[in-house]
Amino acid sequence: MRSKVTMSILKKAGMLAGAAALGAMLSTSAQAVELQFFFPVAVGGKAAQTIEDLTNDYVKANPDVTIDAVYAGSYQDTITKTLTAVRGGTPPQLSVILSVDMFTLIEEDAIVAFEDVIEDGADQAWLDAFYPAFMDNSTTGGKTYGIPFQRSTPVLYWNKEAFAEAGLDPETPPANWEEQVEFGKKLTKRDADGNVTQWGVRIPSSGFPYWLFQGLTTQNDVILANDAGNETNFDDPKVIEALQYLVDLSTKHEVMQPGIIEWGATPKAFFEGQTAMMWTTTGNLTNVRENAPFDFGVGMLPAKVRPGAPTGGGNFYIFKDSTDAQQKASLDFIKWISAPEQAARWSIATGYVAPRPDAWETPAMKEYVEGFPQAKVARDQLEYAVAELATYQNQRITTILNDALEAAITGQKDPKTALDEAQAQADRILSAYR
């Protein structure tokens, strides 16, 4: 879907007297900086309407800029369309794309470092204002290529009514892997024929399987890839142990639906009582708040060796094939939309984590959190967060890992075999970047 966000010149001119004033205004408009902005709309929460409202507000306050906001579909759709446009010589001037696609965009020579666009110390202070956990997926080689905006972590949601019915404290989620199994057994319900009517927990394994799996590996104190993006650790014994635990939730402990669990269907399954707990993005927070027909809790993911989760979501990028004026205008828009007031507005509307501490000090955010303290969970989890899996040839590498996870979850391979083979494939691709 495409929305042309422009200033109405004639309406503005109608307020002015004389043809000379109108002519001057038309001349100014003709010199307006035009920006094309790709945005992934297929995400949880009220993203589409909110981003359109924010973009409209910016353009109204900046009549010398026009922004053609192109809603490009899912994250995958957006990076595909962006790369096609880059290779065809018609890239957008700015886009929100997954933070993990940074290495791909660098390799394509498609984006500029923000240090090459900013002009003074105030701009540098702006770069330094974001949460370090989000900047881990935004910088490399001492330069900043992405600005955190649509950022998230996975969190645990639980049905408080189901907890109470199972004899569990509805205010206390499982704190670790063992308790997740223990609680899951109490929460799993079967009918007279032995068919499961409510599962204990649901961890999606489609869509972004590596991302939620990275929650388990982080908790087991192992990192899936190095900071340089050229080496993975898929065959580490701790990674194998994490995958075995994920498989065991279904096959051994019988607290989770067997087979591949759909990402997109998970919130609905939670609302309908098909699962008492679910792992999903904090970007679904507003969706859950508006649609869950029961009281629910939000907590950090259960720990093992340590608590932890990956960060996730999208960054703003500025594209190299733009004029100096377009790059400056893109920077100004990104600075404005990521400022505390706008960041708070975005977070409240969607559930995504406001990516800088000062956004949480705004009156609007304070009021929101006071009435809905669950919103703080993802922010507080940042203390234990790690960078989302990101490498060169990232889509190929994550596909390799996703395929390995699927093979283990569906019983085609044991976890060790699946991950050993995945590591060998990743090594063949990434050795060229070392």
Give the CA-CA distance, first to last residue: 41 Å
Instruction: Supply the CATH class of the largest domain.
Output: Alpha Beta
Q: Could you say which overall geometry the principal axes of the C-alpha atoms support?
A: globular
The main β sheet shows up as: 6 strands, mixed
| Mean pLDDT value | 91
CATH architecture of the largest domain: 3-Layer(aba) Sandwich
Draw up the topology in text.
Blueprint: E1 2-5, H1 9-13, H2 19-30, E2 33-39, H3 47-61, E3 65-71, H4 75-87, E4 94-98, H5 102-107, H6 121-127, H7 132-135, E5 139-140, E6 143-144, E7 147-152, E8 154-159, H8 160-165, H9 177-187, E9 189-190, E10 196-198, H10 209-219, H11 237-251, H12 266-271, E11 277-281, H13 285-291, E12 296-299, E13 309-310, E14 312-318, H14 324-337, H15 340-350, H16 363-371, H17 376-381, E15 385-386, H18 394-409, H19 415-430
Parallel strand pairs: 2-3, 2-4, 13-15
Antiparallel strand pairs: 1-3, 4-14, 5-6, 7-14, 8-11, 8-12, 9-10
Helix pairs in contact: 3-15, 18-19
Any overview of this molecule?
- The strands form 5 sheets. A 6-stranded mixed sheet has the order 1-3-2-4-14-7. A 3-stranded antiparallel sheet has the order 11-8-12.
- The protein is 44% helix and 15% strand.
- It folds into 2 domains: 2-152 and 313-386, Periplasmic binding protein-like II (D-Maltodextrin-Binding Protein, domain 2, 3-Layer(aba) Sandwich); 154-310 and 393-433, 3-Layer(aba) Sandwich (D-Maltodextrin-Binding Protein, domain 2), CATH 3.40.190.
- A hairpin with a 5-residue loop joins strand 9 (189-190) and strand 10.
- The longest helix has 16 residues, at 394-409.
- The protein is of the alpha+beta class.
- The protein is built from 19 helices and 15 strands.
- The chain has helices at 9-13, 19-30, 47-61, 75-87, 102-107, 121-127, 132-135, 160-165, 177-187, 209-219, 237-251, 266-271, 285-291, 324-337, 340-350, 363-371, 376-381, 394-409, 415-430; strands at residues 2-5, 33-39, 65-71, 94-98, 139-140, 143-144, 147-152, 154-159, 189-190, 196-198, 277-281, 296-299, 309-310, 312-318, 385-386.
- The chain is globular, with a radius of gyration of 23 Å.
- The two termini are 41 Å apart.
